[in-house]
Amino acid sequence: MKKPSTLLRSISTRLSTRLAPSPAVAPWPPVRSAYDRWLAAEIDELRADPLAPCTSAAWLGHTIGLAVAAQRRLVASATSAPASGVDRKTIDECVDDTAELLDACAGLRDRLDMIRSYASSMRIALHWLEGRGGGAATARRHAAAAFAECEAVERRCGAELTKCGSNLRKLGERALHTKPHSGGRAQCEESLTGARAAALLAVGALGVALAFRPRRSVPGIAHAGSGKGGEAAPWECALQEMQKHVKEVYERRRKEGVPCMAELEVAAADGRTVKCSLTTGGRHLPEAAVSAARKRCDELEEKMFMLEESIGELQRELIGVRMVLLEWSQRARGHEVLRF
Hints:
This protein has helices spanning 4-19, 34-48, 57-80, 88-129, 137-156, 166-174, 184-209, 234-256, 262-279, 287-332.
C-alpha cells in the first residue's frame, strides 16, 4: 500500500497533466481593428480583380483611389479624435514623408502632361496620313516631323521619375517600421502607417509605369516584422503580397525593354509600326495600321487624363494630411494651435 504522501503526489501529477493546455490547440486570434479589416479588404479587392491587371491604367487608377481613401480616413479620424501619445519624432517623419509624396505627385503630373503631348503629336502624324495612303510628299514630311516629336518625348520620359524612385526608397524602408502600441496611439499610428504605405505604393508604381524604358522596379515597402518588433497586421501582409506581385511583373517587363503600362506599350508599338512603314519609303501605308494606331492613341490620351485627375485628387488629400500633421507637431512641441 502506498504512503499517503506518495498517493497525494501521484494524484496531483495526474491532475496537473490533465489540466495542462494541449500543444495542438491554436492560440486565440488577435482582435483586428476596423481599420485593419477595411484596408485588408480593399487590398484583396485590388489583387483579385481579373479585369484590371497591375499593368493596366485601370489598376493604377484604383490604387491611387485607395491611397486617396486612406488619406481621407486619416484626416477624418484626426478630426474626431486628435492624436494622443504619438511621439514627436514619428510626427516629424510623417511630415517629411508627406512632403516627398507631394513632390512626387507634382512630378507625376508633369510626366502625364508630357505623355499627353506624345499622344497629341502621334495624332497629328496619323492625321496627315489618314486617307492619303502616305502618297503625298507634304503629308509624309509633316507626319515625319510629328513622329520626331514623339521620339523626343520618349527620350525625355525614358527612365522612371527620380522623385518616384530613389527619393521614395528611404521612405519605403521605414513605411511599416512602427512599434506596436495599444489604445488611441495604436489606432492613430495604424492610420498614419496605412495612409503612408498606400500612397507610396500608388505613387511608386505609377512613376515606373509612365516610363518608356524603366531602369528600376517599384520602390519596396519594408515589412513590419523585420523592423522594431511585433507581428505584421493582416493588411500589411496583404500589401506585401500585392507589392511583391507588382514588382515581379514590372521587373519582367523592364527586362523585356517595354513600358510597364500596357496602354503606353501598345500605343508606342503601333505608332512605331506606322513610322517604320513611312520611313521605308513605301508608296502606300496600310490603312488598318494607321486606324489601329489612332485608336490606341485615343485610348492612351483618355487614360492619361483619368490618371491626371486621380493624382490631382491625391495631391489635395496629401495637403490636408500635411496640415493635420503640422498641427500635431505644434501640439507635440507644446505650442498652442490657433484656429480662425
